[in-house]
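Suppose a colleague, Dr. K., hands you the sequence of a protein chain of 79 amino acids and asks what its three-dimensional shape might be. Before reaching for any lab equipment, you can write down a predicted structure in token form. Begin with the sequence itself:
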Amino acid sequence: MFNLDYFRQKSPQQRFLFILGLAMITIFICLAILIAFFGELVNLDPERFPKEYRIAFAILLVVYSIIRFNRIISRKDTE
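The predicted structure, expressed as tokens, is then:
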């Protein structure tokens, strides 16, 4: 799945953007976990942001991060 020769052939700009993309995916997944499981600890108002909406938003963030990951992988295969 991951070819180390592919990383050697990249320009520094492409490597930076790849690492930035992976960092954003990690941030989205961490944010989804934080919202879904630790909403009370970060003082989310339960009346404005009920638990059902928090879980739905967390699922949406996870799906979005999966889509971004697939785009990064598919871009790697085409280059």
